[in-house]
């Protein structure tokens, strides 16, 4: 299976405390979060709002637990704001991640996003027009150039409730961006929830995948979300997402294809749930045990 020197295992803090819904996990501290990540057997993390932005403080806290920063989310508004404004914010974000030793920068286009709106996430997906696509692809190529100034790469995060959600969206984005500048973050959960075939996307874009989010889906809840016309945030609170091994998606073929391709990078568990309903440490341990069993790492 995987060559141990090629992949690292991380987990996102969103299971402990949710940046979009601060009421979820408001009681959980940064120190508890990273301590429980390490206790569960992970060595990497993405960043959350409770993480210190002082490089020396963050490095010390993580090194005490044998942890490092894998990446962090960047909200781009390339379709709705001047490129220069996004560039300025991106450079600040890039430079912080560079100081923390990260190699990839997660970018999601939030222009026209309905992620935080109280409307059906499955019925009101944004659709970009020609001008939006031109702004998005030109802007992503530019962000890719800026990242490579620091020998880093951007990985684009397809996401529920945004203009890049489906396989067709990803196909168009990949075909219209420079393959040497714009890479893909492969997220099992967002594709599966959207009704897509994650394995087909993985096979098609393996050479451009430089970051992986392992997220599972509870299909019974996903069906209820669709029937009730729930928003993305309400779907999260209902428990549509969970960790690998606790939902309905079969990760074994994904692990096999990634391993056989000599994928190099992070495998990062990201499963936002209400920590009052799903104890973060318990679910982190479930994920770690499942990955060891199915992926051999």
UniProtKB/TrEMBL annotation:
PANTHER family: HYDROXYPYRUVATE ISOMERASE, INOSOSE DEHYDRATASE. Its EC number is 4.2.1.44. The keyword Electron transport does not apply. Keywords: Cobalt, Lyase, Manganese. InterPro entries: IolE, IolE/MocC, IolE/XylAMocC-like, Xyl_isomerase-like_sf, Xyl_isomerase-like_TIM-brl. Belongs to the IolE/MocC family. Residues 38-288 form the Xylose isomerase-like TIM barrel domain. Its cofactor is glutathione; Co(2+); Mn(2+). This is Inosose dehydratase.
